[in-house]
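Two proteins, back to back. First:
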Amino acid sequence: MSFSDLFDSEFKQRNRGHFSSIVRVALTDEKFSPEEKAFLDKLAVRLEISPAEYEEILENPLKYPINPPYLYEQRIERLYDLARIVHVDHHLGDKQELLLRKIGVGIGFNVDNIQYIVDKALKLVDKEVDLDTFIFEMQSMNK
């Protein structure tokens, strides 16, 4: 296996884990709304999830582990995707918020601050900010 194949494999595995965690959040109410399904379809393309992997993940999202990103900005980007899938549902159930906090800790946010981080993320997504604004606001929320 060449070095580039190894990098490609790790990248794909990380994307599958990220997509899987988003599917878990979407499935907390045990069904996909049309908006959630549309978001998942677009996200799968963006994350280079093949149609076969897509179906496999939808059937068993627990198969892939959450792979926490190394960089803080990447964690924020993942949180943005996760918060958007919760927001798409138009009603935030307790299960979804709880799972969002758990996955937030799983991707590397501090357990002591996760409630504050998730609250801020959901407020920003509710305002329909773009990714760049979301990143800026999340990075400067303690300043």
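And the second protein:
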Amino acid sequence: MYAVLIDAPKADAARATAFWSAALGVTAEPFAPEPQFTTLHEALPGLVTAVQAVDDAPRIHLDFETDDVEAETARLLALGAEQIAQWQECRVLRVPGGHVMCVLPLETDPETFRAQANVWP
């Protein structure tokens, strides 16, 4: 797993960011390459944690990082997930139970990824 995202409707994203930053005792910083994301630094050590402004309902979702988006998506579909959208190279899945998750290409440096990644047979 790579990240935990707190999705908030665009109109509420600034207030949600201020709340989560204060509640978790961490700093919040906009992520310049993708302005809909605001990073909550070190909220969950070892994971990226951010508030994402969305055109959808509030929720929390997980991001899985992979060096093979197609293969990881296929693996998760075989486990019962359903692809519901695609955003850039990311696949958006609804998993059994109704939760949403994303499968995204490498964001961390390759050496760190190799050292920490789960490898599936």
